[in-house]
């Protein structure tokens, strides 16, 4: 996790300590729910929107915004699109919700074990030594 841009030693330690093993969660959605960043639908009529979950681990929720996405200079610039294809503008709260959900997904995938390489014992058991 330390090799990933935006994660310092304190942020990584706080996330790993609060998550207490990514194996507890079957998917990134379950981690987001436990962190309190899963979207909750609050739609009525023709409006379709979501809000942030107020439950979950507040310490983990507070640590997520501290691990920013890569610097804007490192990310590719979006292509200009026509106004007909532009999505609706999100409010500040909804943008924060989307960012936190994205960060929870990113953290979940960073904490997953790497798949075994070809020719490597998947259980890392070597009986010959």
What does this structure look like?
This protein has 129 residues and is mainly alpha-helical. The chain has helices at residues 9-19, 28-35, 58-63, 92-110; strands at 39-41, 50-52. It has a domain at 26-70 and 90-114. It has a two-stranded antiparallel ribbon. It is built from four helices and two strands; from the N terminus they run ααββαα.
Please outline the helices and strands.
Blueprint: H1 9-19, H2 28-35, E1 39-41, E2 50-52, H3 58-63, H4 92-110
Antiparallel strand pairs: 1-2
Helix pairs in contact: 2-4
Please summarize what this structure is:
By secondary structure, the chain is mainly alpha-helical. Helices cover 34% and strands 5% of the residues. Strands 1-2 form a two-stranded antiparallel sheet.
Strand percentage lies at: under 5%
The Cα radius of gyration reads 19 Å
Instruction: Characterize the overall form.
Output: elongated
Task: Please describe the biggest sheet, giving its number of strands, its sense, and whether it closes into a barrel.
Answer: 2 strands, antiparallel
Low-confidence stretches: none
Topology as a string of helices (H) and strands (E)? HHEEHH
Question: What's the overall average pLDDT, rounded?
Answer: 75
List key phrases describing it.
two-stranded antiparallel sheet, mainly alpha, 129 residues
């Amino acid at each position: 996790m330390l090799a990933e841009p935006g994660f310092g030693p304190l942020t990584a330690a706080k996330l790993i300590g609060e998550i207490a093993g990514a194996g507890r969660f079957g998917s990134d959605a379950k981690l987001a729910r436990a962190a309190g960043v899963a979207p909750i639908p609050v739609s009525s009529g023709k409006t379709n929107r979501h809000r942030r979950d107020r439950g979950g681990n507040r310490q983990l929720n507070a640590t997520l915004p501290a691990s920013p996405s890569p610097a804007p200079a490192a990310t590719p610039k979006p292509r200009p699109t026509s106004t007909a294809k532009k999505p609706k503008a999100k409010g500040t709260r909804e943008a924060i919700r989307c960012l936190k959900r994205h960060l929870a997904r990113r953290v979940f995938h960073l904490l997953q074990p790497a798949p075994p390489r070809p020719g490597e014992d998947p259980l890392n058991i070597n009986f010959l030594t």
